[in-house]
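Support request from a user on the community tier.

User writes: "When I paste my structure tokens into the form, the page sometimes reloads and wipes my input. The last time it worked, I copied everything first. Here is what I submitted, just in case something in the input itself triggers the reload:"
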């Protein structure tokens, strides 16, 4: 064993950790994931300061030079001593001690929600210059200016002096006012309409829709961009469309209070309101909390406290929407962006539960497994309420992305899922009644209809008895197998996706069979086609096995899709503008995807563009107007997704974008399409954690000449 005791010949020196100046920049960049969270963290600081309101004002957000962001609250403010020893101290324990000692704020009796002492450094996420003015009652006004660029040019934190100015005569907080004003200048990026709309959604969701905190009102203003928030639907307009509501309390190992209500709309005159309470036999069966393996859960094993879980559940079936929703597009858009189950502590939100990219309860996966019963995120607006002083075992992550994944969190999550299972069971009964009374009557979908027509043609046109018998045998088998495949598509997520690709190919051959059978002397070719068709259906399982996800280059996938369609683009005289090739930042961008399926999805978008570009070209030719057919493709990234943008200068999307990804919906004429291409693309993206969308003007940087054409975005998860 080596002794570490010094001898007379040894030399010792005392050293200290010397934090690099860039450490604070890293705190802002790495722990605060986006602009919305940065602003929310600053708003939460206002809440901790006992403020009744916080105004977030964005001036000229579309200019990094002239733009600035102003955050003003009416809280109790800070003294120069607090600024120096608390606000300027990363990881300060000040709020943590306040929480542990249960020191409530004097005016609104609040416990702090920011305990880590790093939220303020999110300001660096927004801009390079921060100016703070703050005033506490009976104290001088304090002014601090921080230039974050100095933290790059200087080596150590100690090399950067921060000047704190005390003003005996306040310049901002006059007339006895108190509070804090933060101004962020030299913006790090140009703000676009889509970014601002994300922020307004985040700001308005900081408090629960079920229990507004009247004492705290965060407000976002953008004075010079009044139209940026036009068309945003509010919760007040949406909640009345809810058909199912529930309210439950969970404590210890059981449900201690419960109510469920089915409220049909006035137009549903054949249905009656139904209410279920704690005393109902079916609820009694769910009273004891268990996990998905039926193991008992007792929340009293942890510091979680009593949980209140409330929610509104909606229905997006077409036959339901037709009965009472006037703005169907806006309604669906709201649920897509705001649906899900959020978590609140003392009435304030715990980020980022309930965000579109955070399916923390795996609701969408459960929906794939049980499509007729389970509730997906876009069907529910729910709130889980916790008491901060009772839920200390639910620890928030430093990066503000939810709770640490520990035993307490797993028990908490399983308790919520247990209640959801009960709600889904009750809802299924009422949903079935709605469908029985108001649902559509069964229809013969196009493929089955074509197969029936093909069988009739065989009977009438094919003269060779032996060949006729074989074709009929194959067509019967195809009809049976096709129905089996499509039924499975509705029941499986990953497998269903791949089967849908097979179905697309099957349908192409079915159309060809139909054409051949209608022609004279085509019996031999018809036999070969149906034999091929049968073998194609038999081989769907093999395709599934080949569609495993691998780490692929996004650029290579797009290039391959263009290579596969190059001849068609050339023959149709279409110019391709490949903006993505000009972006060095995406050269090495990779995503985990099923390569061939994604190539097929991109090809489908190109194929659609070719068709609609030709349609517009015909119209232009008739009116003798000059016209050049173009396709624009680009790739941009954000924190979670790589967005493949495909746009054209054709006729645009004629059908409502909310319906266009549904199967068998098409705007093409004369049987030019079955209406499955975009549906399959949507399924491909969804099964791989991505999404398909149809952006509004300003959501992405797309040249103006493509604004009137079709614009489709395939978003791939990159994290």
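"...and here is what came back when it finally went through:"
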């Amino acid at each position: 064993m080596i002794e570490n005791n010094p001898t007379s010949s040894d030399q010792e020196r005392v050293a200290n950790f010397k934090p690099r100046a860039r450490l604070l920049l890293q705190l802002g960049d790495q722990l605060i994931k986006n602009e919305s969270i940065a602003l929310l963290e600053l708003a939460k600081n206002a809440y901790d300061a006992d403020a009744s309101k916080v105004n977030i004002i964005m001036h000229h957000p579309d200019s990094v030079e002239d733009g600035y962001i102003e955050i003003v609250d009416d809280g109790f403010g800070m003294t120069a001593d607090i600024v120096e020893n608390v606000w300027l101290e990363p990881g300060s324990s000040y709020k943590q001690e306040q929480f542990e000692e249960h020191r409530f704020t004097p005016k609104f009796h609040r416990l702090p929600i920011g305990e880590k002492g790093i939220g303020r450094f999110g300001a660096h996420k927004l801009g390079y210059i921060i100016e703070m003015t703050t005033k506490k009652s009976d104290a001088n006004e304090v002014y601090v200016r921080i230039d974050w660029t100095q933290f790059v040019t200087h080596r150590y934190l100690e090399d950067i002096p921060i000047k704190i100015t005390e003003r005996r005569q306040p310049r901002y907080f006059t007339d006895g006012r108190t509070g804090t004003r933060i101004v962020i200048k030299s913006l790090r990026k140009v703000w676009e309409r889509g970014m601002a709309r994300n922020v307004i959604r985040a700001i308005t969701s900081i408090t629960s829709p079920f229990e507004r905190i009247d004492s705290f009102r965060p407000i976002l203003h953008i004075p010079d961009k009044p139209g940026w928030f036009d068309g945003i639907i509010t919760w007040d307009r949406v909640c009345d469309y809810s058909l199912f509501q529930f309210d439950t309390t969970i404590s210890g190992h059981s449900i201690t209070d419960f109510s469920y209500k089915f409220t049909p709309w006035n137009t549903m005159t054949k249905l009656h309101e139904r209410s279920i309470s704690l005393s109902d036999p079916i609820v009694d069966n769910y009273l004891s909390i268990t996990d998905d393996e039926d193991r008992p859960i007792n929340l009293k094993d942890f510091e979680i406290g009593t949980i209140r879980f409330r929610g509104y559940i909606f229905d997006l079936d077409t036959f339901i929407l037709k009965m009472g929703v006037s703005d169907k597009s806006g309604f669906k858009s709201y649920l897509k962006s705001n649906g899900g189950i959020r978590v609140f502590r003392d009435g304030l939100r715990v980020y980022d539960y309930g965000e579109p990219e955070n399916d923390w309860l795996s609701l969408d996966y459960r929906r794939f497994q049980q499509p007729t019963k389970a509730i997906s995120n876009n069907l529910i607006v729910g709130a889980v309420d916790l008491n901060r002083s009772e839920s200390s075992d639910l620890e928030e992550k430093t990066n503000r992305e939810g709770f640490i994944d520990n035993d307490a969190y797993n028990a908490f999550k399983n308790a919520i899922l247990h209640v959801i299972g009960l709600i889904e069971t009750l809802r299924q009964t009422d949903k079935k009644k709605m469908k029985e009374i108001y649902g559509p009557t069964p229809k013969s979908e196009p493929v089955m209809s074509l197969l029936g027509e093909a069988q009739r043609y065989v009977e009438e046109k094919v003269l060779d008895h032996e060949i006729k018998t074989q074709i009929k045998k194959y067509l019967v088998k195809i009809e049976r197998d096709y129905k089996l495949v499509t039924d499975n598509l509705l029941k499986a997520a990953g497998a269903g996706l791949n089967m849908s690709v097979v179905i697309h190919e099957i349908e192409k051959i079915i159309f060809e069979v139909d054409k051949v059978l209608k022609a004279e002397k085509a019996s031999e070719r018809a036999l070969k086609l149906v034999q091929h068709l049968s073998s194609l259906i038999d081989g769907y399982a093999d395709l599934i096995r080949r569609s495993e996800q691998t780490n692929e280059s996004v650029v290579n996938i797009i290039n391959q899709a263009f290579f596969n369609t190059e001849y068609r683009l050339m023959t149709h005289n279409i110019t391709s503008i490949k903006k993505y090739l000009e972006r060095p930042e995406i050269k090495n961008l990779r995503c985990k995807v099923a390569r061939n399926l994604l190539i097929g999805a991109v090809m489908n978008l190109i194929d659609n563009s070719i068709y609609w570009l030709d349609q517009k070209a015909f119209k232009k030719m008739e009116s003798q107007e000059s016209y050049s057919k173009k396709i624009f493709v680009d790739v941009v990234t954000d924190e979670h997704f790589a967005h493949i943008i495909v746009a054209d200068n054709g006729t645009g999307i004629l059908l409502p974008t909310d319906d266009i990804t549904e199967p068998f919906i098409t705007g093409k004429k004369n049987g030019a399409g079955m209406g499955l291409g975009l549906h399959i693309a949507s399924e491909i993206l969804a099964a791989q954690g991505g999404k398909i969308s149809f952006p509004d003007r300003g959501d992405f940087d797309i040249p103006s000449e493509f604004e009137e054409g079709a614009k489709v975005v395939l978003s791939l998860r990159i994290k």
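Agent notes: The reload is a front-end session timeout and is unrelated to the input. The mean pLDDT is 81. The longest strand covers residues 127-135. Escalated to web team.
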